[in-house]
Amino acid sequence: MRRVAAASPSPRASGLTPAGRLPGWVRRVDAATPADRDRGADGLRALAILGVVLGHWLVTALVADSGTLRVASPLRHLPWLAPVSWIFQTMALFFLVGGWTAAAGHASARARGDSYGRWLRRRMARLCRPLIPLAAVWGVAVVVMLASGADVGTVRALAKLVWSPLWFLLVFAVLTAATPVAVRLSPVWPLAVVAGTDLVRFGLDGPAWVGWVNVAAGWLVPYCLGASWAGGRMPGRWAGWALLIGGAAVTALLVLRAGYPASMVGVPGARVSNQSPPTLAAVTFGLAQSGAALLLLGPLRRALSSRPVAWAVVALANLSAMTIYLWHQTAMIAVTGLGMLAGTPLPGLHTVPGSAAWVAARLAWLPVFGGVLVVYVAVFRSAEGRAEGRSVGGRAEGRSAEGRAAGRSVGGRAAARSAEGRAAGRAAQGSA
C-alpha cells in the first residue's frame, strides 16, 4: 500500500504551534496521528459531511399550516438559489473518499490474509450499526405522535424527511460489496452506462424506470475514481484539472443546451430531477467536484498538518460521520417542533420559503440546528461502535505493518488516555 508523505512537519515536531496553549484533547489527537496518515482525505470527507448537512438545512423547510407541518423547498419559489446546490451537493465527494477508503482497506485486509467475507462483515457492521438508535427513537416518536392525535400527514412528512436520505446507505453498501470489482474498473464504463441510460429515457422517450439504473452506475463513477486514487493510478494534478474543467464544461452544456435542470438537488414539482435518479448532468458535475477535491488535497494536507485544532475537529467529524448524517434532519425537526411552542410561526423556521427574507432568517437558525446536532452526536455517537476495524480516514485495518502502512486511527492511543481521547477516536483495524 502506498504511503502518504507528510505534507509538512507536524506542529508537535516543528514548534509551529505552542503545544502548551492547545487543549489537552487536541494535543492527544495530534500526537496519536501517524506521520503517514493522509489528513487531506479526512479533510475532504469532513467537507462532504458539512456540505450535505448545510445543504439539507438550507433547501428543506417545514411550513406550519393550521397546526400541521408540511415539507417545502425554497428552490421551488426561489430558482435563483440553484447555485446553492452546486456548493452543497457533495455526495460525489462521499463516494470518492468512500472508494478510496474501501479500496485501501480491502488491500490492507488482503495483505494480512483476511478473507473478503470477514472484511465485508466489518464494513457492513460499521455502516449499519448507527441505524439502530435512529430506528428506535423514531419508532417511539411516531407511536407517541399518532397516539396523541397528531395529523397523519405531518407524521408521514417528518418520517419521510428523516428516512429519505438513507438511500445513500443502501447504495454505499452495494458499492462497498463491489469494491474488488471497482478497483479494476475504469470509471469510463459506468459513465458510459449513465450516458446510455439518459439517451434512452430522454432522447428516445424510453420508460422512466430505466433511469434507476443510474442509481448504481452514477455513484459508481466517483467510487471508481476513489479506488483508482487508492491504487496510485491518478496521474498527478493534471488529472484533477482535467476532471474539473471537463466535468464543469460538460455539465454547463447539458444544462444550457440539453435541458437538464440547473439545480443539482431535487425540486418539488419539477419535471426532471438531477438526483432521483441521478442524471448525466449530476454525474458530470460530480466529476468536476472530484477534480476540485483532488486539487485541494495538497493544500488540505498542509493546512491540517500545521493546524492541530483544525485537524482534531476534522478527526472528530470523521469518527462521527454516520451519526452526523443520520441525525442532522432530526436536529432540524426538533428545533422546528419546539419553535411551535411560541404559538406563532417563526420566520425562517415555520414560514413559506418564498423570499430572500426567509433565506436570511434560515441562515440565523443554522447555529441552533448545529447546537442540537452536537447534542445528538454526543448521545448517539457510541453506536458507531468500538469494533476492531475503525479509522478516521479508513486507511487501516490492523496494527500489522501492512495496516500501519495503509493508515491508523488518530484516536487509538488517545482513547486509552482519557474521555477526550475516547471522543476523538478508537483503535483502528478497519475502515470507516
UniProtKB/TrEMBL annotation:
It comes from the Bacteria. Residues 390-432 are annotated as: Disordered. Pfam families: Acyl_transf_3. The keyword Transmembrane helix applies. GO terms for molecular function: acyltransferase activity, transferring groups other than amino-acyl groups. The chain crosses the membrane at residues 46-64, 84-109, 130-150, 162-181, 188-204, 210-231, 238-260, 280-297, 309-328, 356-380. Residues 403-432 have a biased composition (Low complexity). Keywords: Acyltransferase, Membrane, Transferase, Transmembrane, Transmembrane helix. Residues 40-376 form the Acyltransferase domain. InterPro entries: Acyl_transf_3_dom (IPR002656). This is Acyltransferase. It comes from Nonomuraea montanisoli. The lineage of its organism: Bacteria, Bacillati, Actinomycetota, Actinomycetes, Streptosporangiales.
